[in-house]
Amino acid sequence: MTFTEQLLQELAEADGRIVKSGSGPGMEKWPPRVAAARRSGRVPETKELHGGWCQGGYEIKLVGVPAWRLAVLEPVPVPARLTRPHTVVRTMQNEQQPLDLTKPVQGRALRLIQALITAAEAEGHSSSAGHTGFAPPPHRRHRAKPHFTITAQGQTVGFLALQEQDRTEHVATEKELDEAKKNSWIRIPRFDYTPSERLRFVLSGGQPHRASEWSDTPGHPLEDQLAEIAQEVTLHGEAAEHRRLDEIEAARQKRVRWEAAMEEARVQYAEAYRARHFEAQEAAWRHATRLAEYVSAVRTRVDAMPAGQARSEAEAWIDWAAARVERLDPLNTSPRLPDIPEPRADDLRPFLGHWSPYGP
User: Fold this and answer.
1) How far apart are CA 94 and CA 103, in angstroms?
2) What is the rounded CA–CA span in Å between residue 262 and residue 257?
3) Which residues are within 8 A (CB) of 57 and not within 5 positions of it... i.e. 6 or more apart?
């Protein structure tokens, strides 16, 4: 049994995931072994073999190939002439030097863009022109403003159509050599760059699937890759829609949890209110008991006073005080649970933990 066959069998028995743990030089063999297994041709066509370092060692996974990779794509036809250019293409044509391309490649670039936009709009997407009269330097192409955009299911994908450069060894001229000798800060370039007839599409925005760049390669021009690029735009839109639905569901679940927390907070608030009311009744009873004892002591003192105005005034005070004590003593009313007032936001805050009383 070959190593690849053994590895695939081990993955099948482990539900498609194994972690090789250990230490020392022996662990370094796994990345090249997994790479060799990929090249062996024994991995099923509907599966992909992945390997990478993880906390426990080297993780190897056998996962299913996404359905979009297995889809058969219809070629995107490219018009031979721009007889009815799209509005976006017409905007580019109005530029003195569309997309900052040289004359030999302008026509082909515009026909490729026409074909791509037509295919995208056939899928229900929309498009619009961007900054059509410039081309960013190579090191800034991933942050540059797009030449045009295609929007799929709310996800806007930006496109740059760039002209590739051919690099050749620079042969220094006598003038350059003389100036470099005279001035130490002058650097003679190592290479010369000249525009080629090869084109490159650079995509930005959204979640990449196949790639974020497509370019002419020997035997595989951009005309043959337009179907993949059009599919990539659709995949960006589908991923954005999935994210939107996931966010909606996450927000719904978060609100459900918040509402449950609010309901529990109301229950705890009501119980805390009853407990405070109970403790307040006990305190009121003790207060009333002390006052009753005081009134009783005063009555004993007044009973020993001789008849007269002073005793009459004292007895009147005792009557008032006794009535007051009777009103203060909670035992003089039937015990009942208190009415719970509607809580304010700040009343619920102590019972909500990390939640806000104003919303999820």
Assistant:
1) 14
2) 9
3) 19, 20, 21, 22, 27
CA proximity to 105, closest of 124, 119, 92: 92
What does pTM read for this prediction?
0.73
**Angle between the N-to-C axes of helices 226-303 and 309-328, in degrees from 0 to 180, rounded to the nearest 10:** 150
- Pairwise CA distance, residues 133 & 328, whole Å: 88
Where are the strands (E) in the chain, listed by range? 17-20, 47-54, 57-64, 126-129, 148-152, 155-169, 191-204, 213-215
Q: What is the pLDDT along the chain (360 residues), one digit of tens a residue?
A: 788 888 999 999 999 999 998 877 778 888 998 999 999 988 988 899 999 999 889 999 999 999 999 899 999 999 999 999 999 999 999 999 999 999 999 999 999 999 999 999 999 999 999 999 899 988 888 889 999 999 999 999 999 999 999 988 988 888 888 888 888 888 888 888 899 999 999 999 999 999 999 999 999 999 999 999 999 999 999 999 999 999 999 999 999 999 999 999 999 999 999 999 999 999 999 999 999 999 999 999 999 899 999 999 999 999 999 999 999 999 988 889 999 999 999 999 999 999 999 999
How far is 260 from 255, CA to CA, in rounded Å?
8
Residue 134 DSSP one-character state: -
The residues facing 192 across adjacent strands are: 168
CA torsion sign for 32, 33, 34, 36 is: positive
